[in-house]
Amino acid sequence: MALQEKIRILILDDEKQFTEELFEFLQKSGFESFETNTHADAVNVLNKQEIDLFILDVRLPGVNGLDILKDVKVEYPGVEVIVISAHGDMDTVIKAMRLGAFDYLRKPFRHIDIQIAIERTTKYLQLQRKLKLIEERNSLISKTLEERIDRQFIGVSPMIRDIIEAADRASKYPDTNVLITGESGTGKENIARIIHYSSIRKDHFFCPVNSSAITDSLLESEFFGHKKGSFTGAIADKMGFFEVCNHGTLFLDEIADMPLNLQAKILRATEEKMITRVGDTNPVRTDFRVISSTNHDIVRRVSENKFRLDLLHRLNTLHIHIPPLRERPEDIRPLLGYFTDTFAQKFNRPGLAIHKDVFRALEKYSFPGNVRELKNMAERAIILCKNNILNASDFPLTTSPDASPIAGIPVANLKSNEVDLVRKALVSSNYNQKQAADILGITRDALIRKMKKYNITIGKAEN
Ligand SMILES: Nc1ncnc2c1ncn2[C@@H]1O[C@H](COP(=O)(O)OP(=O)(O)OP(=O)(O)O)[C@@H](O)[C@H]1O
Ligand SMILES: [Mg+2]
Description:
Rossmann fold; Helicase, Ruva Protein, domain 3; binds adenosine-5'-triphosphate
């Protein structure tokens, strides 16, 4: 039961007229109810439905109601039980309470009595669930607070302005999946956080997951959660990422590395928004938005049969590509200013200036590690700088500024660069061949010829 959801009530009593009346009353009062007259029927409902409250008559013909209560408390520990006893049968009531019943009602009872008992149980259930949620989230909280701070996206280039605009749009459509591509260190996770914290999902979890960092055997239970005892080591019920980020955002980092068997499951969960914990039979609803990111050529992964095309289509409803820093050197100056200010404040170094040679040198540099590299450089420079002015010598560059003949294009042959460009244009246009051709500045026929030549066969046949 989610905190705000209706509670679900199961009634078991052998008197059909009694259960019918109670069922009708509960339905009218806004509860989702199930009415049963035999033990077998009740077990059937408990297996199929997520029941919150079980109203159980302990005097059933042929079975001991207290045994049923005992079994329910073991098999379905999340279900609270109100027992119905006969007038004067205090002994049974005491036994039932000792076995874990939450409350009792003596027959005959008035509707108001049952209403009060249900209200009391609901309050208790809600508290229990709140507590559980707090426990589940506890380990994530300090990290989340820390991460909330780093939410600035600096840049003056038209590309960055477009990205900020796209992120703003994505934040207004909180159910739309977003794919963010770009080299390592370009700020993909940063943009994902900005989208989340500017959307209505902001008060719920932003849950970053790098599936390549989780061992294969744990992948499914990490994503879907598990029921206590479903495998060795499952010592308690546990929520998976899909449930933790209910109403929030699931950030799938480096999706290109996700194992194929998990891809099928992620696709289904993302489409249906229903998941079943490992070892459980009851699916639960969870509402999340997926933002995914990769620094690999995901289209190539699809053509190599390492990534499912249907999942790619599902994930990239909106696509944001962040170009490498070397393709937007005008962003270096504001970024460096921002990082030096941040670190000067952190290390208590007021009044630091930057020599103009620093900008000149950095604007020619290829930044293989992109903005992350620039940020680390700024931190190191401030720590190492002995006076009040940061000089070019405080910024040692790892590769020569003109190591690559054309800035931004790694040294490789023309063919592989062309294949790369065609693939990238297809991803950015969501496989719209006309748009991809426009991006490349060629005609659609020329694009189709190139796709045939390089055997790039994926994408929609017509658009
Ligand atoms: N435009 C920007 N403005 C401010 N900070 C930025 C910007 N771009 C990147 N950063 C900072 O650079 C660092 C790297 O960014 P981030 O982790 O988002 O990169 P990434 O693309 O996810 O990298 P990887 O692919 O390696 O995971 C972070 O500290 C981030 O805050
Ligand atoms: Mg990242």
